[in-house]
Write a structure and sequence with these properties.
single chain, about 400 residues, mainly alpha, Na+/H+ antiporter like fold
């Protein structure tokens, strides 16, 4: 038993060190660090499958750290959402956001269910996984080309934030409804689905109301108290502790900890005093977030990579075209330049955090809902889109820069 504990401590130390070295290496080459994290998990699983050196409790420890990583990751995304800015451009961004989410979701579900014959519930998880966009992948390119502060740049940030909000809410609802739908046609009736849907939406409303009231009445006093009574970086650690408690409350209600962490982050984001502390958050991010992606890679080992590559090639179609058509179609009727809307559409293609969270919950529900092959193909889609999109964007913007006033 003592040997197992020592092995686990050694393993965590190795993974933390390798993840930071990997991040430094990929940052230098301007590639997303999640690629390296997923690869680390995949290699770890392959080595263990061949030599069986990990203790039996290793996956449980890894998945626990991954859950903390999900909470940290989604809390950060919510914390940086700046809801006032989002609401200011809601009228313009919402049309583009709803359009690309609906088109991508329908396209993804149709291809998954009708062509790939994936389980109906699994196809719903894929559809939702394809709707979200990774903010970190393309924003760096926009910053380098000095267009992030333009009107088009503000629109892009609002679009990505709305995509995440819509995707996370849809995922939270699906996680509650999926067991009912998956139970089979003999137990699933229209009235049962209607009752469960109403209960789910009601619980979601109560949870969001709690987050709103917490943000309005508790958070300002809590942040001021922490700022006066604790020394940095202690206040932000305490804030994250409250974020974990709110995330757990969401899980108790049947939603995901990811949804809870996201809205916990939003609850604190409205307070400028809390936002000023976020620099202290980076050390916790560096430790915990890689474990989420390492666990993704650990689960992505399959027996048939030929099948995975085939599904990946097909699912890349809605992943790319859904965003392009979903942005260009409404942009044609709005006062957005054709080139500017194309740049936005390409920038929306990368998938990462929310996509992997959705697939992770689908896999946990049942291996018949999300098979290991489907899971691995969606992981590949996230990696491919995260690597290829910055290269395409950089080439486009070098040949024809986007004017900053756009």
């Amino acid at each position: 038993m003592l040997t197992d504990q020592i092995t686990l401590i050694f393993l965590v130390g190795v993974l933390v060190s390798l993840s930071l070295w990997t991040k430094a290496l990929l940052d230098h080459r301007k590639l997303p660090s999640l690629i390296g994290y997923v690869f680390l998990g995949w290699i770890l699983r392959l080595l263990d499958d061949n030599w069986k050196f990990l203790p039996d409790t290793a996956p449980d420890i890894l998945y626990f750290l991954a859950d903390i990583g999900i909470i940290t990751l989604l809390f950060r995304i919510g914390f940086q959402s700046h809801m006032k800015t989002l609401l200011a451009q809601l009228s313009r961004a919402s049309i583009l956001a709803l359009s690309n989410v609906i088109i991508t979701g329908i396209f993804g579900y149709y291809l998954s269910y009708s062509i790939l014959s994936i389980h109906p519930v699994g196809s719903l998880f894929i559809a939702i996984a394809l709707t979200a966009t990774s903010i970190g992948v393309t924003v760096t390119i926009w910053k380098e080309n000095k267009i992030l502060n333009s009107k088009t740049g503000a629109l892009l940030l609002d679009l990505i934030a709305l995509d995440d909000v819509i995707g996370i809410i849809l995922l939270g609802i699906l996680i509650q409804l999926a067991p009912v739908i998956h139970a089979g046609p003999e137990t699933l009736t229209l009235s049962t689905l209607a009752i469960q849907s109403t209960l789910t939406i009601g619980q979601l409303f109560l949870f969001l109301l709690f987050c709103f009231l917490f943000s309005l009445f508790i958070e300002p006093k809590l942040t001021q108290y922490l700022k006066k009574s604790e020394h940095m970086p202690d206040p932000i650690v305490t804030i994250i502790g409250f974020g974990m408690m709110i995330a757990s409350l969401a899980a108790f209600l049947g939603f995901s900890v990811a949804l809870g962490a996201f809205f916990a982050g939003i609850a604190f984001s409205r307070d400028s005093e809390a936002v000023k502390m976020q620099a202290s958050f980076k050390d916790l991010e560096a430790f915990f977030i890689p474990f989420f992606f390492i666990a993704i890679g650990f689960k992505a080992v399959v027996s048939s990579y030929t099948m995975v590559l085939g599904m990946t090639a097909l699912l890349l179609i809605p992943a790319a075209l859904g965003k392009i058509v979903g942005i260009l179609l409404p942009a044609f009727f709005m006062k957005i330049s054709r080139y500017g809307s194309l740049v936005i559409a390409i920038s929306m293609i990368p998938r990462a955090e929310i996509t992997m969270v959705a697939m992770d919950y689908g896999l946990k529900l049942s291996s018949s809902v999300i098979t290991p092959e489907v899971y691995a193909s969606m992981v590949l889609i996230a990696l491919i889109t995260s690597v290829s999109t910055p290269l395409i964007l950089q080439g486009m913007l070098k040949r024809r820069p986007l004017q900053s006033p756009e």
